[in-house]
From TrEMBL:
<protein>
    <submittedName>
        <fullName>SDR family NAD(P)-dependent oxidoreductase</fullName>
    </submittedName>
</protein>
<dbReference type="InterPro" id="IPR036291">
    <property type="entry name" value="NAD(P)-bd_dom_sf"/>
</dbReference>
<comment type="similarity">
    <text>Belongs to the short-chain dehydrogenases/reductases (SDR) family.</text>
</comment>
<keyword id="KW-0560">Oxidoreductase</keyword>
<dbReference type="InterPro" id="IPR002347">
    <property type="entry name" value="SDR_fam"/>
</dbReference>
<dbReference type="Pfam" id="PF00106">
    <property type="entry name" value="adh_short"/>
</dbReference>
Length: 261
């Protein structure tokens, strides 16, 4: 008798950046598995439309929280709004600023750091203690393949994702001792609104995937019950990320700069 592989079935999942792209795909995939949802993003109209679709299609309960993760103590304040048990947290919200650093706006950089770094730490700080206390739960922090090397024209974004990767790896070790999983999900270039904002040239160093590809990578990791500190979506992206760590920066950076321009 062949038994079906066990599937990860969280009772309630919280997804940030859920209004589009990878976040919305996570919401659809988890709803199809029967997970109730808390969807977090700034665009309330999109959240409401998505929540209505998922409740109607899958019969789950979907709560929406219009929230700006760039505000100070965003995770702690979000936890006050969402006091119920959360089995899976997906820190997906993020954005990039592209172009030479000296041409960038300091306020844009500050907001990027607030959303891509501070909010990730704050959300983990807000939701991880309850998971540790009950010895169950999972947190996925969405990083990027840019985390594996510095990237000219995406200097702050790549550094922010390197932080998320390192932070997630440390939490993976600390949390595993308490039965809780934390890992970084590293997509390469993905067909979302992200590249509508920063431009297609930023995708030149990788192979385009779809949000479905990226979420499928995460779900396979969850289904396998593997305790892994990080996973890269896509074989080509994996090879490129590994190779980047082997090439000296004085060689790698000019090559990346040529690819991105």
């Amino acid at each position: 008798m062949i038994r079906a592989s066990p599937r990860y079935l969280p009772g309630r999942s919280l997804v940030t950046g859920a209004s589009s792209g990878i976040g919305a795909e996570f919401a659809r995939t988890l709803a199809a598995r029967g997970s109730d949802l808390v969807l977090v993003a700034r665009r309330e109209d999109r959240l409401t439309t998505l929540a209505d679709e998922l409740e109607r299609t899958h019969g789950i309960h979907c709560r929406t929280v219009a929230w700006d993760l760039s505000v100070e103590a965003s995770g702690r304040r979000l936890r006050e709004v969402v006091p119920e048990r959360i089995d899976l947290v997906i820190n997906n919200a993020g954005f990039a600023v592209q172009g030479p650093f000296v041409d960038g706006d300091a306020d844009d950089f500050a907001r990027l750091i607030a959303v891509d770094i501070r909010a990730v730490v704050d959300v983990c700080s807000a939701f991880l203690p309850d998971m540790i206390a009950r010895t169950s739960g999972t947190i996925i922090n969405v990083a990027s393949t840019t985390a594996f090397q510095p990237v000219p024209s995406l200097a702050v974004y790549a550094a922010a994702k390197a932080f998320v990767l390192s932070f997630s790896q440390a939490l993976w070790f600390e949390s595993a001792q308490h039965g809780v999983r934390v890992f970084a999900l590293n997509p390469g270039p993905t067909r979302t609104e992200f590249f509508d904002v920063i431009g297609d040239t930023a995708a030149a160093a990788g192979s385009y995937q779809t949000p479905t590809d990226v979420v499928s990578t995460a779900m396979r990791t969850l289904d396998a019950r593997r305790s892994r500190p990080q996973v890269i979506s896509g074989r080509r992206n994996t090879i490129q990320a590994i190779a980047a760590g082997l090439v000296p920066a004085r060689v790698l950076l000019p090559a990346l700069d040529r690819m991105l321009h």
